[in-house]
Amino acid sequence: MILEMKVPSPGESITEVEIATWLVQDGDYVEKDQPIAEVDSDKATLELPAEESGIITLKAEEGDAVAVGAVVCLIDLDGEKPEGNSTKKEEPKVVSEAPKDESKPEEKKETYASGTASPAAKKILAEKNIDPSEIKGTGKDGRITKDDAVKAVPSMGTPAGGSRSSERKKLSMLRRKVAERLVSVKNETAMLTTFNEVDMKPIFDLRSEFKEDFKEKHGVSLGFMSFFTLAVVRALKMYPDVNSMIDGDYKITHNFQDISIAVSGPKGLMVPVIRNAENLSFRGIENEVKRLAIRARDGQITVDEMTGGTFTITNGGVFGSMLSTPIINPPQSGILGMHNIIERPVAVNSEVAIRPMMYVALSYDHRIIDGKESVGFLVAVKEALENPVEILMDNNPKKALEL
């Protein structure tokens, strides 16, 4: 019996996917639920598991765009599972080794003589009026390759003598969609960025005092993200325009705070969503951040987990960024950028003190958010981060941290 495997729908509004990588070869025996391919949609990269066990026949090439519901492979359910090393893989070795000594003399007769250029190399050398005899080929038996011809072309600069090869590789569907969305944000929004700085010492002091007890009790570290998320939730309630988005001639204002967090995964940047962050405690946020980060790292994140979100937080500081202007994550209207923490001299009570300082940046859509709201929002975030015990913990850190 032959089973036709069709492309499942990765999510709402997705009509096609791209075969990024086949994880098996044509004719392989596959087990049920074994990952057989990675497919790219315009929102995520997902694994395609085998629906049944059997011998697989591929019906699409890597890089092909395939409609949702189309057949991508066949599985012969009557195919027998090979025991140990399959004879299929052993037979080619016997066949290829048997005529090895006999075929070599004939292959040598057909090889190119030293100084002979490939067709592509000939064209390049002819265009530049370079005699092939002046080129030392690096190909088989001294044949001049295209790369040899490219390197031999005189340039205006000083020859470096190093490799000048290039690689042309098609962007994944996910990366192409990200590029399209980023360009549309720049072209279709009135994006502006405002900056401020935060004295992180109060949060450093809290983490030093409670992080061991917090991790021991809850099994997760007390990081910076919970402080920033709760500070953002508070600021969004104070400035609801920042928690809004434009839909044609209408403004949609949300009465909930779904916070998107940018995390780095194997396929690039992903933005999973912490749902109803306004209802979560420090422990709840840290658990959710850890869960989503692990799923993104392991390539298990789903489209639904990255859909929605009313505001985004991105932390370029983990990569060493000092300052940046983050790009809005559409259709949202605002994004907060965190950066690295550097000890700097600052004025504290009219005296110079060394404090761990972080620059923060808010990029926002000026069509819907005015300067007053954007600056007020960022100041509200700064106030909460510099006074976390009073503003975020109601003057009771142990209760807030559930210790």
Number of strands: 18
The tally of structural domains comes to 2
CATH class of the largest domain: Alpha Beta
Question: What share of residues are in beta strands?
Answer: 25-35%
Low-confidence stretches: 85-112
Classify the fold: give the CATH topology of the largest domain.
Answer: Chloramphenicol Acetyltransferase
Please tell me the overall pLDDT.
84
- Which bin fits the share of residues in helices? 25-40%
Oligomer: single chain
How is this structure best described in words?
Helix 7 crosses helix 8 and helix 7 packs across helix 10. The protein has two domains: 75 residues, OB fold (Dihydrolipoamide Acetyltransferase, E2P); 212 residues, Chloramphenicol acetyltransferase-like domain (Chloramphenicol Acetyltransferase, 2-Layer Sandwich), CATH 3.30.559.10. The protein is 32% helix and 25% strand. About 7% of the residues have low confidence. The chain is of the alpha+beta class and 403 residues long. The strands form five sheets. It has a six-stranded mixed beta sheet with strand order 9-18-17-16-12-15. Strands 1-8-6-3 form a four-stranded antiparallel beta sheet, with no helix packed on it. Strands 5-4-2-7 form a four-stranded antiparallel beta sheet, with no helix packed on it. The N and C termini lie far apart (60 Å). The chain has twelve helices and 18 strands.
